[in-house]
Amino acid sequence: MRLLIAALMVTLLGRLWLLQVVEGGAYTKAAADTRTRTVPVPATRGQILDVHLQPLVANRSRPVVTVDHVTLGLQPDGGRAVLTRLAGLLRVPYGELEAKTRLCGPEVAQPCWPGSPYSPIPVAEQVEVERALRIAEHPGDFPGVSVELRPVRWYPLGSGAAHTLGYLQGEHGQAGLESAYDQELAGRPGSRDVAVDNTGKVVRTIQERAPAPGDTLVTSIDARIQRIAERALAKAVPRPGGKGAAVVLESATGRVVALASQPTYDPGVWTDGVSAAEYRALPLHSSALQGQWAPGSTWKVVSVAGAASAGYPLGAAYDCPSSYTVGDRAFRNFASADLGELTMHGALVKSCDTIFYRLADELWRKGDQALERAAKGFAFGTPTGVDLPGEGAGLVPDRRWKAATGAASCKRAESGYPEEKDAARAAYLTRLAKDNCRSGGAWQAGDAANLSIGQGDVLVTPLQLARAYAAVANGGTVFSPRVGLRVLRPDGEVARTITPPVTGRLPASASTLAFVRAALADVPRTGTASGAFAGFPFDRAAVAGKTGTAEAYGRQDTSWFASFAPDPGYTVVVVVSEGGRGAEVAAPAAREIWEGILS
Known about the structure:
It is a single chain. The protein has 22 helices and 23 strands. It is α+β, with helices and mostly antiparallel strands. Strands 2, 3, 4, 5, 10, 18 and 19 form a seven-stranded mixed beta sheet that branches. Strands 12-11-23-22-21 form a five-stranded antiparallel beta sheet, with helices on both faces.
């Protein structure tokens, strides 16, 4: 690298001296026919650090090959021959280089250059010494092409936390923290006034104003725990393209400690720019923020709170038969198990469904919307407000929602789902639409039964579920999670501190929440997650949690495990789409994360 830097400096300085000597007279001649253009000079972008000030995103100086768009346009063939020679030298397809040098516009699809046409367009970085010197030493073969040292983004975690960190397009942050904190990270750009001749070619620099470097963002992400969550999730989602997420929050503060999503990618691909095909193939969807699944039995903490608010005594005995009939349909326990009489404590530990079916049916008959009120009191159905763009809102189906979807269901009952590639699924969705249409959009007892166990149309994101369980753990405070911790000026002074806002309180008394915590503490010891947590050191971390197995038509079940511990005071949620039972996939992955935290 030092050899390359030295060689480039000697070569470039030599070229500059020749230009001054040979073209000095030409400057005078062209002065009468020039115009002034102002070109932005980007600032050095601020770093993104973890809670221990370890870099999550930093800058490294790399030799970057750039192309002058105007100079290319002045070539007889529009620069095609130059780009062809450059593509051969760099050993990349011509089309890839051509796409990167296009100027962005309404009719121009990604990839393209979003910056000024007078700014050098980066097309390749980390170029080998021989190739970089060939460009610098043979300007006649490569008019408008330069090699310069530039700071480029470096991602020490590789594909870890890719969706949380985001990426750059040109000088602007796209997605993740790069977008959410773009104004502070970007700094203040400088500018360069240049003289251009009547063809648009830059002939000299008139003056330059230096940019101000960007601020540094310190996050609450713990890089060590992030790596632990990434490894555990990758093992739980073994098939290529499989979806899942792992979320770790500080229960008492709402701060984000780790966000892992599958599938993921290495954001370093953006350094050189990506081709259109590469862009389409990138998994830019964050499963942790944007993935939405039915939560299954992890939802039962909501229903217990709703039952308590409706006057059901939590310590009373309730029958847990193998099935319960709602309307003309039998709703069954998992494996049709008959578990006898249980309190609500036992209903959570053993994950009895039929107790909740009966509860929902009785409330529906009375017109009591306690379950719906509890769900919304837990802040489901609305985005968490996390300081990351694009999160999903989830869905809490209720009477109003059902009525609003009635008309749409009737249209679908006639049209079907021709866009659905799976014929069996299309037929299933059409049958549902016909049923909903016949009901006139009325909220049925079966809808209430599904809601009570987190099935049917209920949808949550992993971050939403983690926020809810953190609120159960901390005594009822609902936070809007934050990844950012504080912003540091270039001199190291704190510009501002970022505090997760309190957005509400759980609709449950202190005694109800204590009851729920005690029940969840038995789930990994004697309940549905006992197999996954056999031999776990509960004396070091008293993990409490709830398994969830949510049905998905035509697919394997969604696997969930939501958990928390008082010390360390974290909440850990894992979901694996099409993973099967929560006790068999998500719970072991969560255990691995807890053990990693303790190590």
